[in-house]
Amino acid sequence: MKRRVNATRATAENPEWTKGTFKKARPASDVLPELFGKQTTKAMLKPRGRPKSEQARASISLRLPQETLARWKATGPGWQTRMAETLAKVIA
Predict the structure, then answer these.
(1) 39 neighbors 29 (Cβ within 8 angstroms)
(2) HSE-up (13 A, CA, CB side) for residue 47
(3) Model-level pTM?
(4) Are the C-beta atoms of residues 29 and 40 closer than 8 Å to each other?
(5) Which residues have C-beta within 8 Å of that of residue 1, sequence separation ≥ 6?
(6) DSSP string, the chain
(7) Consecutive sets of 10 residues in the chain, 92 residues long: mean pLDDT of each?
């Protein structure tokens, strides 16, 4: 069953913005400079996530026998890297 929203509570907690409210509004970088700094455009923001690798790897889908996969996983953390190194040695 869908939950009913109390209309008076919703407007009290989140009132509708008026033209006056928009005029008083300030950028987040002005209100919280320690979080946002003085940067105002997305291009100026620090990139998020892990840095791009010079030797980026490709994601693939590979079907292996369950026993083979279980033996690689049993070698502990880093098994995927060790598998890639072993394959690289075989190719070389």
Answers:
(1) yes
(2) 4
(3) 0.45
(4) yes
(5) none
(6) -PPPP-HHHHHHHSPPP-HHHHHH---HHHH-HHHHTT--SGGGSPPPSSPPPTTPPPP------HHHHHHHHTT-TTHHHHHHHHHHHHH-
(7) 70 83 88 73 70 87 95 95 94 92
